[in-house]
Amino acid sequence: MQERLQKIISGAGLASRRAAEQMLRDGRVTVNGQTAQLGQSADPEEDIIRVDGERLPRKKSRTYVMLNKPKGYVTTMHDEEGRPTVAELVQVPGRRLYPVGRLDMYSEGLLILTDDGEAANRLMHPSHRVEKTYIVDVVGEDLWSAVRQMRREMDIDGVKIRAIDVQLIRSGGGRGQLSVTIGEGRNRQVRKMCDLCGLKVQRLVRISEGALELGDLPTGTWRYLTPEEVRYVTEQA
After folding, report:
1. Cα–Cα distance between 234 and 237 in angstroms, integer?
2. Whose CB among 10, 14, 48, 205 lies 3.0–4.6 Å from 108's, allowing a Cys bridge?
């Protein structure tokens, strides 16, 4: 499959994509014996790609999994305070996976873990505005007023943000359930939004991130991403 050379070089673990672009500008890359140009594509399975005369190693296989994180686990591989971590829930032999983004200790739901650092960075980078949807159980006196407020621009930690969508799914007796979709993904953003609107969060579950959906994955379990989901993760611009 044809790919941009800078992506192939980066995927082989030789350099970052930006550094690979500079290699191409400097004339350090050849394809089938010919000096390559920035913007050129090649097939790593068919073409002979060399950097500084050395043949490029084949692209490393990567692992992508989805975890339904339970409440009470921290999103890190090691915790100095000895709290349970998501690393205890996801163990793939021969692979060291890292979480993509975070869910705070008391939040639940969809969490991606991978050893593909480039894909992880693209998913997390604010410029891509990957939509994340949460189901939030709340307690409050005026739920409809709170929802209207959450739909407007808000100041979170000195930064102006605006939710993509906020819906009141059900309410009664001072309790309600919200669907909240955001694009920024700032630290504890949904909890802080609720707090500013006078709502107390009882439970918060992330159910989707971009095209990735939690579905019926049981709490505390994980699965490999499907080929279509991997394609979505790796093809983010």
Report:
1. 9
2. 205
182 vs 162: CA distance, rounded Å: 8
What are the Cα distances from residue 134, in Å, to 15, 33, 81, 137, 179?
A: 36, 52, 28, 10, 6
Residue type, 88: E
CA 102 to chain centre: 9
155 is catalytic: no
Cα 75 to chain center, whole Å?
13
Q: How far from 59 is each of 4, 38, 115, 197, CA to CA, in Å?
A: 13, 19, 13, 49
Catalytic-role residue among 47, 52, 79, 104: 104
Its pTM stands at 0.76
Instruction: List the structure tokens of 177.
Output: 């359930």
63-103 pLDDT, tens digit per residue, is: 999 999 999 999 988 888 999 999 999 988 888 898 998 89
Separation of alpha carbons 89 and 87, rounded Å: 5
What percent of the chain is modeled with pLDDT above 90?
Answer: 64
Token match 């994980």: residue? 222
Over residues 139-190, the pLDDT tens digits come to: 998 999 999 999 999 999 899 999 999 999 999 999 999 999 999 878 899 9
Tell me the C-alpha distance between 147 and 152, whole Å: 9
Residue 71 is encoded by which pair of tokens?
A: 């409440």
Q: Six-digit token pair at 14?
A: 């030789």
